[in-house]
């Protein structure tokens, strides 16, 4: 196996700057304990890494087969604090993380797999598949055509102007999906609110659930959906004309809007369940 | 209310009954509402667990499926508490993953909460030992998150006691237990420096 290895010992404060030629299938993996990872794209088969290490961290970039591995080590084995600015081929697949890191990815068309404990993850633009995890940091995806899978234990999840399948979950924070155009969408929280606004496609399936938080659905009129409602201590509300078919017990029923084409599930054990029409601009 | 067929429903569902016995059971199902209900519940439970994205990545082994089904289709008391069993089962796959490597799983109605309690107890103990590795604000947020889930579980327990056959409450209970295990597992991963 051909192994090319670059090891640059960066002195404190001195930037690390290198450009490495890669193949189209090469994956970039960046691992950091703390700091920032900012990824942009260009139309070259090469990766440029500019890193600003602190506390004596040594940055290394190792190209091993199909993986370009970037990480830093400290002489004492402590936390490596590095600010990375990385430019990658537009379709490069990325694995980024993993501790107290702010990750920002702009306009990539490969897959993005990012995981942090704290800090934040922002995906801006681009297309592809993104899989994002955080323990307590917020996750944001903006203006992307992507399949989005995101999970945060404590942090908030926000998607805006996204087109594609969505599967997002925050255990104890809010999930906000603003202007999301999807045919397969699931958004879940335990104690946070779940808000979705976007079109309901006739062949679409949408699941919006919380336990303690309220669930809001806003869609452009006319709304054509069969909405499976379930609640115990909450209440359903909509000012839009609809019919209700009760199932087995109070709090569990189907609300039918228009021709009932889109299949929607809205559940909140204790919160409100609200369906609204988006007012024309 | 028990009959000779009630313990064979799981085998029937698995296609393991000899053809002759399967036909006999099908005839029996025409007349026995209890067994029909039991079969419906078994099918629904299997579908729910299989469709749960949290569990999809860590499905029970085929041996565990057998144990789960047998636990539900075992003696008559299941019809009194099928919802409670089903609620606990949703947390079972994750509990099993936490405890790997594991012994062959015996799933009895009374044992399911015990498995869940054991899993959460172990995680909580690890977390207590490693709490100093987390930032104070993280600990605060984590405790708030767990308190919210515990409150939700209490609500679901009360609702289930009032309405034991409510599928939505049953499912919620399972999801909440899953969520609690997930939060604990993630917190332990962070505190011990492992990947999420």
Please, could you describe this protein's structure?
- The complex is a heterodimer of chains A (281) and B (196).
- Chain A has 281 residues and is an all-beta fold.
- Chain A has a domain at 169-281.
- Helix content of chain A is 0%, strand content 64%.
- Chain A contains no helices and 25 strands.
- Chain A has strands at residues 3-7, 16-21, 27-42, 46-54, 58-64, 67-73, 81-89, 93-106, 112-116, 118-124, 127-134, 139-152, 157-163, 166-170, 175-181, 184-189, 194-197, 205-210, 215-219, 225-230, 235-238, 243-246, 252-257, 262-268, 272-277.
- A five-stranded parallel beta barrel of chain A has the order 8-9-11-12-10.
- Chain A is elongated.
- The model of chain A is unreliable at 1-12 (pLDDT under 50).
- With 196 residues, chain B is mostly helical.
- Chain B has one domain.
- Chain B has helices spanning 9-13, 19-31, 33-51, 53-56, 62-73, 77-80, 82-90, 92-98, 111-130, 136-162, 167-191.
- In chain B, helix 8 packs parallel to helix 11 and helix 10 runs antiparallel to helix 11 (167-191).
Any descriptors?
heterodimer; A: 281 residues; mainly beta; 5-stranded parallel β-barrel; B: 196 residues; mainly alpha; elongated
């Amino acid at each position: 196996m051909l192994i090319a290895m670059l090891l640059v010992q960066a002195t404190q404060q001195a930037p690390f700057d290198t450009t490495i030629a890669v193949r189209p299938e090469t994956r970039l993996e960046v691992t950091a304990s703390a700091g920032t990872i900012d990824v942009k794209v260009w139309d070259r088969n090469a990766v440029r890494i500019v890193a600003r290490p602190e506390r004596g961290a040594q940055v290394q970039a190792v190209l091993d087969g199909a993986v370009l591995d970037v990480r830093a080590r400290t002489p004492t084995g402590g936390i490596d604090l590095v600010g990375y600015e990385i430019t990658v081929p537009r379709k490069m697949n990325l694995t980024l993380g993993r501790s107290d890191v702010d990750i920002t990815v702009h306009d990539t068309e490969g897959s993005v797999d990012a995981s942090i404990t704290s800090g934040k993850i922002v995906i801006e633009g681009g297309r592809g598949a993104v899989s994002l995890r955080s323990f307590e940091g917020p996750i944001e995806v903006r203006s992307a055509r992507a399949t989005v899978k995101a999970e945060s234990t404590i942090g908030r999840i926000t998607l805006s102007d996204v087109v594609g399948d969505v599967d997002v979950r925050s255990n104890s924070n809010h999930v906000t999906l603003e202007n999301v155009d999807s045919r397969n969408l699931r958004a879940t929280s335990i104690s946070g609110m779940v808000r979705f606004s976007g079109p309901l496609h006739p062949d679409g399936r949408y699941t919006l659930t919380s336990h303690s938080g309220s669930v809001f659905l806003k869609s452009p009129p006319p709304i054509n959906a069969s909405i499976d409602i379930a609640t115990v201590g909450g209440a359903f509300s909509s000012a839009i004309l609809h019919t209700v078919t009760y199932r087995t017990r109070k709090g569990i029923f189907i609300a039918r809007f228009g021709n009932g084409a889109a299949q929607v599930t809205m559940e909140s054990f204790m919160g409100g369940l609200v369906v609204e029409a988006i007012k024309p601009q | 209310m028990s009959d000779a067929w009630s313990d064979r429903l799981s085998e029937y569902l698995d296609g393991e009954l000899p053809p002759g016995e399967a036909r006999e059971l099908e005839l029996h199902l025409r007349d026995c509402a209890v067994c029909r209900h039991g079969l419906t519940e078994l099918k629904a439970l299997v579908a729910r667990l299989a469709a749960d994205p949290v569990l999809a990545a860590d499905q029970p082994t085929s041996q565990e499926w057998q144990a789960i089904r047998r636990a539900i289709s075992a003696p008559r008391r299941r019809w009194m508490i099928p919802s409670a069993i089903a609620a606990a089962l949703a947390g079972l796959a994750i509990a099993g993953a936490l405890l790997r490597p594991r012994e062959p799983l015996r799933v009895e109605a009374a044992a399911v909460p015990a498995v869940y309690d054991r899993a959460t107890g172990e995680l909580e103990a690890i977390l207590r030992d490693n709490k100093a590795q987390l930032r104070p604000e993280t600990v605060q947020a984590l405790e708030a998150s767990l308190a919210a889930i515990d409150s939700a579980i209490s609500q679901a327990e009360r609702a289930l006691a009032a309405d034991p056959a409510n599928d939505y409450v049953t499912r919620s209970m399972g999801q909440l237990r899953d969520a609690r295990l997930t939060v604990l597992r993630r917190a332990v991963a962070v505190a011990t420096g492992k990947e999420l």
